[in-house]
Amino acid sequence: MNKSTKDIVKSVWVPLSHPFRSAIQEATEVTFEDKDKISTTSYETVLLKDVLAYNQKAEGPLTSTFQKLNSIERSDIAKIIQKLYPKLVPYFIDCGTRNPVHHTAYVMEYMVTILIGEGKHTESNVKIDMVKVGMLAALFHDSAQGLSKLQKITEANIKDMVRKLVRGTAEIKELKKCLNNTVKARQVHMEKGAEIAEAILPEYPKEINDDEIREIKRIIEHHDDPKIPVAYNIIRGMFSEDDECKNWYNQLEDQQKEELDSLLNEAYADYLIEINDWLLQYHHEADLLWMLTEDGIDADLARFSPTEKKTHREMIDNNIKCHKEEVELYKDRPDFEEYNFQNNTVYRSKTGYMLFEHLTRILNERYP
Asked: How far apart are CA 221 and CA 299, in angstroms?
C-alpha cells in the first residue's frame, strides 16, 4: 500500500461492530481513531471516499454473504473469508477509482446467492468444492486492479478512435494499438490477481487443496474474458449502423477492407465462456450484477468528466444494454441455442436472471 493511502487509513473510523475491525487494523498496520477526530481537509478526497465506502458499504453485502453461507452449513467458508479478506484490504484500497473497495463484497454476495439458487451446495462426490472455489475466486478476482498501470479503454475511447480513423486523423494501425491496449488492460489485472491468490492461498493447506487453488486461479485469470470482444463489437456496430462509418468503409479498397476485417475478427471466440464452464459463468453473472446496484451505477457515473456526465437514467439504460449486447457475441456459434440465454440477456442461470430482473426493477422504480 502506498504511503498516501496508508496515511489516510490511519485516521479512518471503523465501527466497533464491523466484522473485520481488528483484522483490518492488523493487516494494514494502522490504528483507528475516534470518529469525532476525523478531518477530511488534508486528505486525498478520492482515496478517503473509497476507504470510508469500504467501511460503510461493504458491511451489508458481507454480512449477507456470511448469513447465506451459514444457512447452508458452510460456516467453514465464512471463516476462511474472514481470515483472507483483511489481507486483501490494502489491494482493494489501492484500486482507487478503478474499482470501489466494496465491489468485491457485492460480487461475493451475488456469487453465493447464485450457487445456492442453482443447487451447487448440495453436490457431492466432486473433485472441486464449487461453493468454496466460487467464493474465493470472487474474493480475489479484482484484487490486482490497483497493480495494473494500464488504464481501461472505455467505450468512449474506442468510438473516438474510430471517428479519428474515419476522418483521416488516425490509421488502422492506431486502432489496432487501441484494441491491443484494451486486451492488455483486462489481462494484466487478471494475471496479477491470480498471482496474489497463488501467493496467499497455499498458506491454508488444511482449508484449500491444490486442485481448488488451480481452479480459483483459472477463474481469476479468465473472469473478464467475455468483456474483451465487446470492444470489437462496438467497432463492428459503428461500421454497420453509423452512416459516416459505413460510407467510409464502403469507399475502402479491397486490401484495406481485408485488413480491417481481419483485425476485428482476430480476437473473438477465444474469449467467450464455454457452454459447460458453469463456475466461470456464475462468476461472470455475479460480477455483472454489480453494475445494476445503486452503488455500481454511482461508481460508473463517477468515472465521467463534468463535460461527459450522464444522468442516472442514462447510466442505467447503458448498463442494461451491455447485459444484452454480450449475447450477440455468441450468435455465430453452432451451439448458440444450447446456451439458453435467459430472455436475450447474458444470464444463463435462472438465479442470475432473477437477480437481474430484481435489481433492474428497483432501479427503474427509483429512476423512472
From this structure: 24
Is there a contact between 24 and 86 (Cβ–Cβ < 8 Å)? yes
Mean pLDDT by 10 residues, the chain (368 residues): 39 42 47 36 38 64 90 92 81 71 90 93 75 96 78 75 86 82 82 90 92 95 87 81 87 84 73 93 96 90 76 92 88 91 96 96 94
CATH topology for the 58-366 domain: Catalytic domain of cyclic nucleotide phosphodiesterase 4b2b (1.10.1300)
The grid cell for 280 is 466461470
* pLDDT value of position 242: 85
pLDDT of residue 238: 84
pLDDT of 280: 96
Q: What SS3 string covers 68-105? A: HHHHCCCHHHHHHHHHHHHHHHHHHHHCHHHCCCCHHH
Are 201 and 88 spatial neighbours (Cβ–Cβ below 8 Å)?
A: no
In terms of C-beta density within 10 A (0-12 exposed, 13-18 middle, 19 or more buried), how is residue 229 classed?
buried
Which amino acid, one-letter code, is at 237? G
Separation in Å, CA 110 to CA 26, 231, 306: 28, 26, 32
Q: How far apart are CA 189 and CA 364, in angstroms?
A: 33
The Cα–Cα gap between 307 and 304 comes to: 8
Scanning the chain, the segments in alpha helix (DSSP H) are 3-10, 21-28, 45-57, 59-71, 75-94, 103-117, 130-140, 155-166, 172-200, 210-222, 228-241, 243-250, 254-265, 278-289, 294-301, 312-325, 336-339, 350-366
Q: Quote the pLDDT of residue 160.
A: 86
Helix (H, G, I), strand (E, B) or coil at 180: helix
> Which of 116, 57, 74 shows the shortest CA–CA distance to 355?
116
CA end-to-end span of the chain: 41
pTM for this one? 0.80
* pLDDT reported for residue 259: 83
Q: Are 172 and 256 in contact (CB under 8 A)?
A: yes
Give me the pLDDT at residue 268, please.
67
Domain range annotation of the chain: 58-366
Q: In whole angstroms, what is the distance from residue 190 CA to residue 168 CA?
A: 35
